[in-house]
Each structure stands twice: as C-alpha cells, then as structure tokens.
Amino acid sequence: MRFYFDTSIFIAAAIEAHPQNVPARAIFQSLIKSKHEACTSTHTLAEVYSVLTRAPFRPPVHPTEAFQLIESMIGPSTELVSLTARETKPTIKGCALRGISGARVHDALHLACATKATFDRVITFNLRDFRLSAHPDFHDRIIAPA
Description:
Blueprint: E1 2-5, H1 7-14, H2 21-34, E2 37-41, H3 42-54, H4 63-73, E3 78-81, H5 85-98, H6 104-116, E4 121-123, H7 127-133, E5 142-143
Parallel strand pairs: 1-2, 1-4, 2-3, 4-5
Helix pairs in contact: 1-2, 1-3, 3-4, 5-6, 6-7
C-alpha cells in the first residue's frame, strides 16, 4: 500500500508534547515494520518547516532543529511528489469552481500530489477539511491514525 502523509502527521510526530504525538509516531513505526510505501509533497516540507519554526512550542524549535526533524521523519524511502505548473493551475481552478476558499487550497494541492503518487490512503489529522476538498470517491481513503 502507498500512504500519503499530510503536514499534520509530521508536526504531531515531531513534537513530543503534541496531543497527537503517540498516534502519529505509531503510524510511522507501523509503516516501517510493514514495509508499506510512504509519500508526501515537496510543499509538505515547507509547511512542516514553517509550522515548526513559528508555532509557540515550548521550548521553541530552532530552524536547524526543524530541518533535522524533517530529515529524520522524511527519510530516503519517502517519495517526494511535486506538482508542475500544468498540474497546479487546474487544481486551483477546481477549488474556485467548487467554492473552496482560503487555506483549504493547500489540502486540495496535497490531494493532487497524493493522486499523482497513486496513493491508497491519505493520512491526516485534518479529516474534515481534506474530505471537503476531496472528490467524494476519495472520502473513505482519507484516514486519521488511531
């Protein structure tokens, strides 16, 4: 199976005090043991870095520490997917036509990357927004760690 990981999973796994740290770490451990394939978008790297270095975590995460956390979670076996301009523009147009506004455009871009990577499951703690952005056929393939 191919799992696409959203930013929310990486943030929760990186911060020990995060309320969803345990299930986020468990999904990574499960993935390693089961030899499933992992993928995420190149944009996820920027989102994770941005959140880690600006959120009011105690203690704060220094930029070099944020990069080290990203490297430790997104290893060589994680496929990084990016959208071309030809793929990005129709995704945003689709958001406009469906009335999707604001930050949910990022969820739509994640879903476009997941689709490009031929995912089996999208793993996120942001189920509601992802399902609002997704084609209804994908709703059951968008899950949160237990």
